[in-house]
Design brief:
By secondary structure, the protein is α+β, with helices and mostly antiparallel strands. Helix content is 37%, strand content 14%. It has 59 helices and 48 strands. It has a 7-stranded antiparallel sheet. Strands 45-44-43-42-48-47-46 form a 7-stranded antiparallel sheet, covered by helices on one side. Strands 3-2-8-5-4 form a 5-stranded antiparallel sheet. Strand 33 and strand 34 (1227-1231) form a beta hairpin. The radius of gyration is 49 Å and the shape is globular.
């Protein structure tokens, strides 16, 4: 029973002490005046009566009522029911009065004038002051309070004849039952009657309608997020204008949280004065009047729910975790069914006439029932995770959070994690974990209804039925007696508050009230306390838990087969069948990724432990440790699946004998896992074991059937050695607990708690003591266990301990409960006093001691161990640790002596000639990266990676060779290598080795040839070796000087055995010459900018050399020599002449002459008509260092003017001609971007030059003249007058920069407009990608702006015919938009600016980085499948840049084709300019699409015009910071895109492009080194190639290498090459038309990259020996693996196959095989002739008519030519690389024979000498007689079975013969022959033993072979 009301208080308005307008509340009277002993008077009631502050009111308001909640220091809630009414106040004109409050109170009570000071003096107006009646109670009967206060107010207002004192006294003495479902009728003595019903169970909250109202105000989603926020301890603030609604909303939210109790700040109505409470750091649920909304908005981390507006605002910084799916969506749908039952029927054709809607009260219960079910589903099975740590004197219970999360499959779930860590859940465990207590609805639900809820999941109606049943129970709990007699309480009349009250509320007589209270108290004392006995029972545990979502195992679904594999492997290990076990091990390690297999492993291993110890031999021990490590590596620090818990007893049980008296336990090999350093894991384990032993205490020994328990118990108590096996661990291993016939710990505890009161005092003491000592002995046991797993075997590995999670953090932040514990002090003293010598060990030991002490402190304090025992423990821990360290030292020493495990032999890589090993193989594991193919990804195939082998560092490459670790893959050699120079990123990683699962240091190396080496160093590789490897790699990657690169060091080291060549002094050699040249250039350049006068280049004599004698001019350099240019004579020195001649030999000149751009003739009378000339002005590289020596400039411009023009351009790169269209005679020029001043001068100085002109002006004038000269040199424009314009572009982008309407600036938007086409009938072709459904790529407006006509065609092809209007500028300058801003060209000029947006080099760099990561990811993508690759590819923007390049190039091609010249003037003129210019020439001129032409193009535009290869490729240490920028690679990619679209237009194959892409970064050749011709001359590289040819040596130039290789194999040739004459290509450039280059994605692990041809051919096969007689013919089939084999080599295309076959047959016939190229050309020619006779051509031509347009992209390519039609077949064009890497290994063997293939000789001459010889077979084979043929032409010794045999059985290449010597008869030699008839032929590979029939013939053979060798 309890009092209905504790206090009755009357509070009135009083003035504010500081005289402000606000008033304050004053308590006039309170009853009883003395505090109750059990319940003191709550403070601050005045604030809560008027939460918005006490204010006077100008009009009379109706009375209000609400209930505020105050929480006291013991977290008891007090309900304050407040009824407020207003009374008039007479204002007086006095100032603030000085009387004290009590006087005024009395006066007010007597009905006096109530002297209140007016806030402002003025005419007297009526004001009203609030007065509040407050009822304070601990019970929550809102309606009763409302009625009771209403009654008191009614009596006062209506003037009823009832004593207020009696009513108040009765109210205070009314006693009601607390719970139990009784009802009580009360009366306050005013003729009233009220019925109070108590709830059936006081643990269920009372909600009335509050939950339903909350949902009505906020909606489902908002309430759900508030629910999650409150559970996960966020701050929640309600806003409303109504106080009653605030308290209802808070009550509703709390009711939803049941069975958890909210334990933080809970203030449903917060007074204005206390608003600063909102900035408290702790979570809260608070309600505030909406008037204070502004204050609420300033709070950053508070979730604000506006009840009036129906919104919930969650700040950005707050993340509310949602409920785990599928619970979130299920709950949502059930809630909508409850709240809106008509939703289900809304779509019915014939809806039922009426739907019954629940009453609001019932709906409220239904909503609560939904949440009750939700909690039952969330917490189902929670009792299985309770640990009973103590039963007596009070139960101590702990919750095993990790096991709960693991078994529910919700470890990752943020929501549940936070709930379990929260205070509310801790309260739930301590309150509901108790095994013996009263139960309620929730206990029943979670124990018995779970199965039903699972079954109903997919049946909404059944769910709804269940919800209604639960709602009924909840409703009955609140309203046990529905048919209640009605309340009878008087109420005031309508609008009574407006009537003038007779008088203020009277002062009550304290005496009368107090007397009534005392009377009642005396009566109560006599009566016996009516306490209803609570019914306590054992709480039902319910079924064991299941996962919320049945996770499908996915990849690791552990089928029974997998578990069987695990069991078999373990039984093999223990039966000693090691080979069998080894075979199964990889499968087991793979299976152990699954949880069931790990459990199975633990169970199986348990079976092999006898008497807590299992001694194994070394191999068994290794296997067991490996499997344990594999199990533990996937354990999180929580160990949610209990795997580490199950293995913990095992690691202290398995051991091996190292030597007499030294035993190594498994724990010393499994320490590297994070779980061992997690305190939570140890606590859970400890409590689990304690529970087992406490349970064993109370079970009769007979009842205890578990053998483990007996031994475990005794061991635990006797602390007997490592490893008491806990059955809890075992039980956690099983999927579900064992079917127990014995009782669980909770049952035992429940029984004990029931018996406890019946026991005698002594018995109670004894039980408490037993339990305490059990816990204590377990603590000692765990201190031992922890020292086993935390102390490393090798104390020098202390760093590992530091790094392992847990220990380090715990050092800094102790989470011990006993803050200033003894543990701390003992550990300190231990550290300081124990005086170890070895600081390291001391450090480790100290850390472990502190860790264990903290653990011991926490668990012992929680489980009530006595302080004496605790002290004893703290003294023991350091000793335990110290003893263990000593034991470990011996184990470590002995384990070092074990013989090492046999590692596989290292495979040495093949090296190139001249390549040397810098670091010999370091053992490493090559780990799989993000490319799945190598690891046997979804495409199937073997798991080639991880592979075990070694990494080698050579002067040229980083090479990994090894074998897959998975023995099932077989012995496939895995090779991955890349040139050192290609390394772009190197980062240290820490990874687990695939075999031992140990954490090892590793390296990840990424190269720009798209290789990734992700390596883990073997443990035998010390950190210093790894560091040395890194340093050496770095040194080779970034040599301090370019001379240190492989290409340059290779040539300098002379081949041994040959004396170094001495340079003869017959006139200056090229090298000295080039040095002089450079010296002069440097002087000139140094002096260039000294003078500020009008610039004159220094005359020849000032160039540091004596003036040469007059000589005849060999090369006429310039037509009109200006006196200042070449004085005193126009002749060149001899050395200059040599320079000139070598310059003329350069690629540029050959090309200029081909294009007719000027020749170097030897007379001065060259025709003036030639518009351009070759100028040697830059031959000393004085004007522009990065340009070639000879340049094409307009005929009319003098050399000395060029110097001035060059100043206007960046890097002095002034416009020069690089190509001329043979048809339209338009020229293509290139230059650097304009300098600011040049632009200003050119385009803005419109006035005539003033006499005192500055240098800038003169330069810009020169520049203007120069451009004019270019324009006039074009035949079509030389005489044309008037203005030509490019279709009047509206300059959309220039906006503000176009001041005058005359300005002509052409803008291409971004994406740039596709291109401009010819006026003539359409020639040339658009890319052959099928143009079917793809609509035009450009926005129409740009296209039509460019075209002046309708929208472009599909794929970005322009609308053809009138694409450019006839009026066109003579010259278009394509410049960077940023540079040409604000430019106003003179409208009379005939050039026009086309500003475009280009990307910069740094964007290329960034984009390439991302492309590299996309194509070669370092780790597997989070979501497998192509989507993530495509997404990262798109992010890289690489294809967008390619698109832009192609687009600009096609635009330029169009302009040139239509007869306008184009100057490309972007950035510094050496990156994008080069890309665009080269692409334009490639598209416009078919010559550049041949092998020779492409070489010329690259030499001319990239090498001579100074693309900075060394700078962009970061070749030296200086360039390291700038990083790798693949401008050239991007160009090759563009060419590849064009190649794909026009496969028949290129003579070279796609392999050629990949080859260049690989070698332009590999630094194997000198071609792509350095930044310009100038630098190459300075280093002496440019001209030395000639003249050095005499010595055969490694190719220094990539072109030379390509040439040599092309002779041997058609690998660079494209069989589909069938060009159309003068063809201009116009590829589609949209991103959708572009393909990712397979150079980026393919790899061949069998041999590494295939671009070093000598290495890629595989080891040469020995000459084929005869098969043993009768052997079956070998099968020709072989498996080709993705990413392992090279497909083109495994399966060459048909043509390569046929060419090989021809060569083979010719060889057999004894004819020298002709070159493949000759054969191919012959076949093509024959094909052409065949079609001639009747003019109709071959049947192939029938197809021609049907496929005229796209003929070039179909599978069969048809070529229409003047001579009939050829039919050339090819494989699918996308895989045209198939035709490349052809002609397999025989190619390598034919090295010398091909040199002779140009001789076509008759059959007879090919047999220079022949006869029979005996030959000894290979090792262990007999001698056999063979017919030998010596062929001097082919330089071969062939042998046949007999004279008539036509099939050659083998060939000895004489080029490989080192010596011919007399031999000795070997075993099995013919007996009759003389010893001198034997001779040996020694080759580079082996020694052949021969024997002739007699001595003379032997002599003859030797002579013949010798003479053949000497002829060579």
């Amino acid at each position: 029973m309890a009092r209905l009301a504790d206090y009755f208080v009357l509070v009135a308005f009083g003035p504010h002490p500081r005289g402000s307008g606000e008033g304050q509340g004053q308590i006039l009277q309170r009853f009883p005046e003395k505090d109750w002993e059990d319940n003191p008077f709550p403070q601050g009631i005045e604030l809560f009566c008027q939460p918005s502050g006490w204010q006077l009111c100008p009009e009379r308001s109706p009375p209000t009522f609400f209930v505020a909640v105050l929480t006291d220091i013991n977290s008891e809630r007090h309900y304050c029911a407040c009824l407020t009414f207003w009374e008039p106040v007479e204002l007086t004109q006095e100032g603030p009065c000085a009387r004290d409050g009590t006087e005024r109170d009395e006066e007010a009570d007597e009905g006096g004038p109530g002297a209140l000071p007016a806030p402002t003096p003025g005419p007297p107006g009526q004001l009203f002051a609030p007065k509040t009646l407050v009822l304070v109670s601990r019970l929550d009967h809102v309606e009763v309070f409302r009625n009771s206060l209403g009654l008191i107010y009614t009596i006062h207002v209506e003037g009823l004849n009832v004593g207020l004192e009696n009513v108040v006294g009765n109210l205070l003495t009314c006693v009601v039952p607390l719970a139990g479902g009784s009802q009580r009728t009360i009366s306050l003595g005013a003729g009233d009657r009220q019925v109070i019903q108590t709830p059936l169970s006081d643990s269920l909250p009372i909600s009335r309608c509050s939950v339903a109202l909350l949902f009505r105000q906020l909606g489902i989603t908002n309430v759900l997020s508030l629910f999650c926020a409150a559970l996960t301890e966020h701050k929640v603030l309600f806003l409303s204008r109504s106080y009653q609604r605030l308290s209802d909303a808070c009550r509703g939210l709390l009711a939803l949280l049941f069975p958890l109790r909210y334990s933080f700040t809970y203030v449903p109505i917060l007074p204005a004065q206390l608003l600063e409470v909102l900035s408290t750091p702790t979570p809260f649920i608070i309600g505030v009047n909406a008037a204070f909304q502004a204050e609420a908005q300033e709070l950053l981390d508070v979730i604000v729910a506006d009840l009036d507006g129906g919104t919930v605002t969650v700040p950005e910084c707050v993340h509310i975790p949602p409920l785990p799916e599928p619970l979130q969506s299920q709950t949502h749908s059930i809630l909508s069914m409850v709240l809106d039952p008509e939703l289900e029927l809304a779509d019915l054709a014939f809806p039922p006439p009426t739907t019954s809607v629940s009453s609001l009260k019932m709906q409220d219960k239904e909503l609560r029932a939904v949440f009750l079910r939700l909690f039952a589903q969330l917490l189902q099975g929670y009792r299985w995770c309770l640990h009973m740590v103590r039963i007596h004197p009070e139960p101590v219970i702990r919750f095993h959070k990790a096991a709960f999360l693991g078994q529910r499959g919700l470890v990752e779930d943020d929501f549940l994690m936070k709930v379990l860590e929260g205070m509310a859940f801790a309260g739930f465990v301590s309150e509901r974990g108790v095994p013996y207590r009263p139960t309620d609805l929730f206990d029943e639900l979670v124990a018995h209804e779970v199965a039903r809820m699972r079954a109903d999941e997919n049946h909404p109606q059944r769910v709804l039925r269940h919800v209604k049943e639960l709602a009924e129970q909840l409703y009955k709990n609140e309203n046990p007696y529905p048919a209640v007699a009605m309340h009878k309480v008087q109420r005031p009349g309508e609008a009574s508050h407006l009537r003038r009250a007779p008088r203020p509320f009277p002062r009550l007589d304290e005496g009368t009230v107090q007397w009534i209270v005392d009377q009642a108290a005396a009566k109560m004392q006599g009566a016996p306390p009516a306490v209803k006995a609570e019914k306590r029972t054992t709480v039902p545990s319910g079924p064991p838990m299941t996962a919320i979502v049945e996770r499908s195992g996915g990849l690791h679904g552990n089928s029974a087969r997998r578990l069987e594999v695990v069991r078999n492997c373990i039984s093999y290990v223990f039966e000693g069948k090691m080979l069998e076990a080894k075979k199964l091990l990889p499968a087991v390690l793979r299976a152990l990724k699954g949880r069931a297999a790990r459990r199975c492993l633990a169970q199986e291993l348990h079976l092999h432990v006898q008497q807590s110890r299992a001694v194994l031999d070394h191999q068994q021990f290794d296997f067991v440790v490996r499997m344990m490590n594999c199990c533990l590596q996937d354990c999180t620090s929580l160990d949610e699946h209990g795997i580490a818990a199950a293995l913990l007893p095992l690691v202290t049980a398995f051991c091996r004998k190292l030597s007499p008296g030294v035993t190594q336990f498994a724990y010393s090999c499994v320490q590297e896992h994070v779980v061992w350093s997690t305190p939570q894991f140890w606590e859970a384990m400890f409590y689990g074991d304690v529970q087992t032993h406490i349970r064993a205490l109370y079970l009769e020994p007979a009842e205890d059937r578990d053998p483990f328990l007996v031994c475990g118990g005794s061991l635990g108590r006797g602390m007997g050695g490592p490893g008491s096996l806990s059955p809890v661990a075992l039980r956690q291993v099983g999927e579900a607990p064992v079917q127990e016939d014995e009782r669980s710990a909770l049952d035992v505890a429940s029984e004990q708690r029931r018996l406890w009161p019946t026991l005698s005092r002594e018995k109670q003491q004894e039980l408490v003591q037993k339990e305490e000592s059990t816990v204590f002995s377990q603590a000692i046991h765990y201190a031992n266990r922890m020292s086993y797993l935390l102390l490393p075997l090798d104390s020098s590995k202390s760093r590992l301990l530091r790094e392992r999670a847990g220990l380090g953090e715990l050092e800094s932040a102790s989470n011990s409960l006993v803050t200033n514990s003894m543990a701390g002090s003992v550990a300190e003293s231990y550290d300081t006093e124990s005086g170890f010598e070895d600081a390291e060990t001391c450090d480790v030991a100290g850390a472990v001691v502190r860790f264990i002490n903290r653990f011991v402190d926490k668990v012992c304090t929680e489980s009530g161990v006595t302080s004496d025992h605790l002290k004893g423990l703290h003294v023991m821990v350091p000793d335990i640790v110290q003893m263990h360290i000593e034991t470990l030292e011996a184990v470590h020493r002995e384990s070092k002596r074990l013989p090492p495990i046999q590692k596989p032999k290292l495979l040495r890589p093949r090296l190139l000639p001249g390549e040397e090993c810098v670091l010999d193989g370091l053992r490493v594991y090559l780990l799989p990266d993000g490319r799945e193919e190598g690891a046997g990804g979804p495409g199937g195939g073997p798991a080639l990676l991880p592979a075990e082998g070694a990494v080698f560092l050579t002067t040229y490459r980083v090479i990994f060779t090894g074998m897959p670790t998975d023995p099932l893959v077989g012995e496939q050699v895995v090779v991955r290598s890349f040139p050192v120079a290609a390394l772009t990123k190197e980062k240290r990683i820490s990874v687990q080795t695939p075999v031992d699962q140990l954490l090892q240091d590793g390296l990840q190396l990424r190269s720009c040839t798209f290789q990734l080496l992700k390596m883990a160093f073997d443990e035998e590789v010390g950190s210093d070796s790894a560091e040395l490897f890194r340093k050496q790699l770095h040194k080779l990657r970034y040599p301090p000087d370019i001379r240190g690169t492989f290409a340059l060091t290779l040539g300098s080291a002379h081949t041994p055995g040959r004396p170094p060549r001495v340079t003869k002094d017959k006139g200056p050699s090229f090298r000295t010459l080039s040095r002089n040249l450079v010296k002069n250039a440097k002087k000139t350049i140094g002096r260039q900018y000294v003078t500020r006068k009008k610039y004159n280049p220094p005359s020849w004599e000032h160039r540091g050399q004596p003036p040469p004698e007059d000589q005849e001019d060999e090369i006429s350099v310039s037509e009109e020599l200006e006196p200042s240019t070449l004085t005193p004579s126009s002749a060149l020195k001899p050395s200059d002449r040599m320079t000139m001649s070598s310059l003329v030999e350069r690629a540029c000149c050959r090309d200029y002459q081909r294009l007719g751009l000027g020749t170097l003739s030897s007379s001065l009378s060259r025709a003036k008509s030639e518009p351009f000339r070759i100028s040697p002005v830059n031959r000393m590289y004085a004007i522009c260092r990065s340009y070639p020596g000879l340049l094409i400039v307009p005929q009319s411009i003098q050399d000395n003017a060029l110097q001035r023009v060059s100043r206007c351009y960046r890097q002095n790169r002034f416009p020069v001609v690089c190509w001329r269209s043979g048809r339209s005679k338009a020229v293509l020029l290139r230059s650097g971007g304009l300098h600011g001043k040049g632009v200003v001068g050119l385009f803005k100085a419109q006035n005539a030059p003033s006499p005192g002109q500055s240098q800038a002006d003169s330069s810009s004038l020169e520049q203007e003249k120069y451009l004019q000269a270019v324009v006039s040199s074009m035949p079509r424009y030389a005489d044309a007058s008037g203005r030509n314009t490019l279709s009047g572009f509206s300059s959309a982008h220039m906006g503000s920069h176009v001041p005058s309407p005359r300005a002509r600036v052409t803008t291409l938007s971004n994406p740039m407009a596709a291109s401009a086409s010819r006026r003539t009938a359409p020639r040339g072709k658009w890319g052959s990608v099928r143009a079917s459904g793809r609509s035009g790529g450009l926005s129409t407006d740009v296209g039509s702006r460019l075209a002046g006509v309708g929208p472009p065609q599909a794929n970005g092809a322009p609308a053809d015919p009138g694409f450019l209007r006839p009026q066109r500028a003579a010259l278009y300058i394509i410049g960077d938009k940023a540079q040409l801003k604000g430019v106003r060209p003179d409208p009379l000029q005939q050039w026009e600016l086309v500003p475009i947006e280009v990307f910069e080099a740094r964007q290329v760099k960034a984009s390439f980085k991302k492309l590299l990561k996309a194509c070669v990811p370092g780790c597997p993508a989070t979501e497998p499948g192509p989507a993530s690759f495509l997404r990262s590819l798109e992010d890289s923007e690489w294809l967008i840049q390619i698109h832009k390049l192609l687009q600009v190039s096609v635009l330029v091609v169009e302009l040139l084709d239509s007869g306008s010249s184009v100057l490309v003037s972007l950035e510094d003129g050496w990156d994008i300019t080069t890309q665009v210019v080269s692409l334009v020439q490639l598209l416009s001129d078919p010559f550049y699409r041949t092998l020779e032409g492409f070489r010329l193009l690259v030499e001319k535009e990239w090498l001579s015009f100074g693309h900075r290869f060394s700078h962009r490729g970061a070749h030296t240490l200086a360039g390291q910071s700038s990083g790798f920028t693949p401008v050239f690679l991007q160009f090759l990619d563009c060419v590849h895109q064009v190649h794909l679209q026009f496969p028949m237009e290129f003579e070279f194959s796609p392999f050629y492009l990949k080859f260049l892409g690989y070698h332009h970064v590999s630094r194997r050749f000198r071609t792509f080194l350095l930044d310009s011709d100038y630098e190459r001359i300075e280093l002496g590289l440019l001209y030395e190639e000639k003249g050095d040819r005499r010595a055969p040596q490694a190719c220094r130039s990539v072109w030379e290498y390509v040439e040599r290789l092309s002779k041997r194999t058609p690998v660079f040739y494209n069989y589909m090459y069938a060009p159309e004459d003068a063809e201009v290509l116009r590829p589609y450039s949209h991103v959708s038309n572009l393909k990712v280059w397979d150079f980026y994605t393919e790899e061949t692990l069998a041999e590494g990259p295939p671009y070093d041809w000598e290495l890629a051919q595989g080891p040469p096969e020995p000459p084929e020996e005869e098969r043993p007689d009768g052997g079956a013919p070998q099968s020709r089939r072989r498996v080709v693996w993705p990413c392992y084999d090279s497909r083109p080599r495994a399966q060459p295309d048909a043509i390569s196959r046929l060419l090989e076959e021809m060569q083979r047959l010719e060889t057999e016939l004894g004819r020298p095989p002709e070159r493949w190229k000759d054969a191919w050309d012959r076949v093509k020619a024959a094909q052409r002739l065949e079609g001639r006779p009747d003019g109709r051509g071959t049947p192939g031509s029938l197809l021609v008519s049907s496929v005229p347009h796209h003929r070039r992209s179909l599978g069969v390519y048809l070529q229409e030519g003047p001579v009939g039609s050829t039919l050339s077949l090819s494989l699918d064009s996308d895989q045209s690389s198939g035709s490349s890497v052809s002609s397999s290994r025989q190619a390598a063997r034919r090295s010398t024979s091909t040199l002779y293939s140009q001789f076509q000789t008759a059959e007879s001459e090919n047999r220079s000498y022949e006869g029979t010889l005996y030959k000894k077979g290979a090792f262990m084979k007999p001698w056999k007689a063979r017919w030998f043929v010596l062929d001097k032409t082919k330089h071969q010794l062939r042998y046949y079975d007999h004279r008539a045999d036509t099939e050659c059985k083998g060939v000895i290449d004489l080029a490989e013969v080192e010596a011919v010597a007399p031999g000795t008869p070997a075993m099995g030699a013919p007996k009759t022959v003389d010893e001198k008839a034997f001779f040996d032929v020694k080759t580079t590979r082996r020694v052949y033993n021969f024997c002739a029939q007699d001595v003379p013939s032997a002599q003859q053979w030797v002579d013949q072979i010798q003479s053949c060798l000497s002829d060579a």
